[in-house]
Amino acid sequence: MTLSPTSKLLFTLALFAVAVALVVVASAVHEAAPLFFAWIPLLTVAWVLTRPESATPPAVPDEPPAEPDVAPADPNEPPPGPEPAS
Asked: How far is residue 74 CA from its own chain's centroid?
């Protein structure tokens, strides 16, 4: 399973939210039992962050780059170059 960087971030945020929610529940009900389950989403974060990212294939151009438009040269005109010193 490959994940995009954005998916990894969102999944990690959701897992941390679940862990924090379990701690809040444990505090609200004055019980320790939810704390024993809070480690599950935290370990899952490690798994999510070690998944390979989805690779986007390199952009392959469909056509070779076009040559710049050059006006046809006049056969009587000298080739472009440095101006002669006067």
From this structure: 52
Kindly report, residue by residue over 14-39, the tens digit of the pLDDT.
999 999 999 999 999 999 999 999 99
For the chain, give every domain's residue range: 5-49
Burial (Cβ within 10 Å: 0-12, 13-18, ≥19) of residue 50: exposed
Question: Percent of the chain at pLDDT above 90?
Answer: 48
Residue that has been written with the tokens 């939210």 in this structure: 17
Nearest partner of 29 among 18, 21, 17, judged by Cα:
21
Q: How far is 83 from 26, CA to CA, in rounded Å? A: 85
